[in-house]
Amino acid sequence: MAGHRGRFITFEGIDGCGKSTQIRHLKQRVESLSLPCWETFEPSSGPVGSMLRQCLSGRMKTDERTMAALFAADRLDHLLNDRDGILQKVQQGIHVICDRYILSNYAYQGVSAPMDWIQELNSEAGKVLQPDCHIFIDVDPEVSLERMAKARFHRDLYETRERLTEVRNCYFSLIDRFREDENILIVDGSKEEDAIAETIWEHISDLFEEG
Ligand code: TYD
Description:
- This protein is of the alpha/beta class.
- The chain has one domain (8-208): 3-Layer(aba) Sandwich (Rossmann fold).
- Helices cover 52% and strands 12% of the residues.
- The chain has ten helices and five strands; from the N terminus they run βαβαααβαααβααβα.
- It has helices at 19-32, 47-57, 64-80, 86-91, 102-109, 115-121, 123-128, 141-151, 161-178, 193-204, and strands at 8-12, 37-41, 95-99, 133-138, 184-188.
- A five-stranded parallel β-sheet has the order 2-3-1-4-5, sandwiched between helices.
- α5 (102-109) crosses α9 (161-178).
- The mean pLDDT is 95.
- Thymidine-5'-diphosphate (TYD) binds at residues 15, 41-43, 56, 71, 99-100, 104-105, 108-109, 156, 158.
């Protein structure tokens, strides 16, 4: 029975920044220390998350404010549900790596909905669980669009140059605002895959030391 609470690490960045690859690297590192690690993502695979994926693909049309509220609702369900909720895992001593969290809601919906309101919507989730570290992988929207064009055929709602540029700028102003109080690492996503993984591990390996 693990005596310690698991760590909660979140990955952030614009679409196509390389989060999934780096999440895979980090999970392998943590597991190589024989520590339990669980990987998850938002929008989640739960009922609200599935609805959001339909909105993102264009299958279902919704107002952006409605989506902002749904993202926050999905986050609470992702944290609190008793089937595979993040909170339960962390309390069992399992380390959780999450692809996107509250900062995504601010950065993506802050472009089109009032930021104060989005913060209010996320306040409960923030009280329940704050990341031990937010890892922001920064890439130029040109690079991310090129990568996505190679990897898949269709584009989701926010995957345009204009929107991704606004979202990236929004991330930077958020990081400026929260950096004093929270552990936020910015990594250059244009570097080599292994070099990025190394930078991330150097910054957070202490969090996984026993004791
Ligand atoms: P992402 O993980 O980048 O997608 P994929 O798994 O398809 O690579 O996330 C899907 C989209 O959801 C992405 O465009 C960002 C958006 N998003 C928000 O707009 N707000 C949020 O709060 C979250 C969690 C995601």
